[in-house]
Write a structure and sequence with these properties.
Elements lengths: L2 E4 L9 H11 L3 H9 L1 H10 L6 E4 L6 H8 L3 E6 L2 H10 L5 E5 L12 E7 L8 H11 E12 L4 H9 L19 H8 L3 E13 L5 H11 L1 H9 L4 H18 E4 L2 E15 L1
Parallel strand pairs: 1-4, 2-3, 2-5, 3-4, 5-6
Antiparallel strand pairs: 6-9, 7-9, 8-9
């Protein structure tokens, strides 16, 4: 097998908001977060869509390609696209022998023809595109009629949704027209985005078991070191020790609330919404 690498070919210049998003996701070590914690979600989504050999699959906001790699192992013809080339490069470097195309692409302006794919999916990726309607429109446009769309997203009430709620007072307000990422974890919001263009939705709330941390402080420290949005929140207050201490306290408290101590130590359950449907 071989890898097609187009990560060096950026199809269009980015506006300031997209450029900031790209820089944020390149901070820290998101490939480590993907590898150590969230990688199972890609397989869950691909399996829920029943991806089969020979199907043309597009993974939107693929990051390091957890879903794309699973689809490729099913024998699909897969393209992994993401706004941040550093994430694609990490995925390609870790899996050089997988037959996969890696494309730098904006989820809100995908560089693919109409109806180019049999399956279009995104595992905790497209939810971070700031303009939800534009992103949803692009998912539908790229998928052929009768093809399948699948999305896995953190819910507003779940651990990662609450992480963003906790960080909100510490970061600048989003620009007009940008929507909070965890809204993609709200079933009604997703249905409204796609309208009557997708039918037969299958909807599940699931939980990702996480046993990576010793306590809430460990949860905070991990995100502060490796997760771009959290690193950016701390950077906003780098010259303000009091505000930094407040953020430290709030994130550790969130981790403690979301976890529990059992016979096997500290454990968390991160809620996500899984939705799959057929394009009309």
């Amino acid at each position: 097998m071989s890898t097609t690498d187009t990560t060096g070919a950026d199809p269009a210049p980015l506006d300031d908001l997209k450029a900031r998003h790209r820089r944020m996701w390149a901070l820290g070590d998101y490939p480590r977060v993907a590898r150590e914690i969230v990688s199972p979600l890609g397989g869950v989504l691909v399996d829920a869509l029943d991806v089969t050999e020979g199907e043309r699959v597009l993974d939107v906001a693929a990051g390091t390609g957890n879903a794309a790699l699973r689809a490729a192992h099913h024998g699909a013809v897969v393209t992994a696209s993401d706004l941040t080339p550093e994430l694609l490069e990490a995925g390609r470097a870790d899996h050089p022998d997988v037959d996969l195309t890696w494309d730098v692409a904006d989820a809100e302006a995908l560089p693919y023809a109409d109806s180019a794919f049999d399956v279009v999916l995104s595992a905790i990726g497209v939810m971070f595109a700031p303009h939800h309607q534009q992103a949803a429109d692009e998912l539908v446009r790229a998928c052929r009629p009768g093809g399948r769309i699948g999305i896995a997203s953190w819910t507003p009430a779940g651990t990662i949704g609450q992480l963003f709620a906790t960080m909100r007072p510490y970061v600048p307000a989003p620009p007009p027209g940008a929507s909070p990422p965890p809204l993609w974890g709200n079933e009604d919001h997703v249905r409204e985005l796609f309208g009557d263009r997708v039918r037969g939705w299958r909807v599940e709330r699931r939980w990702l078991p996480v046993t990576h941390f010793e306590d809430g402080a460990g949860f905070r420290d991990y995100f502060a070191a490796h997760y771009g949005p959290t690193i950016a929140a701390y950077a906003t207050h780098s010259g303000d020790p009091e505000r930094t201490a407040d953020l430290d306290r709030d994130l550790a408290a969130l981790g403690d609330r979301e976890g529990s101590v059992g016979p096997d130590g500290f454990a968390m359950r991160w809620e996500y919404l899984l939705m799959t449907g057929e394009v009309v």
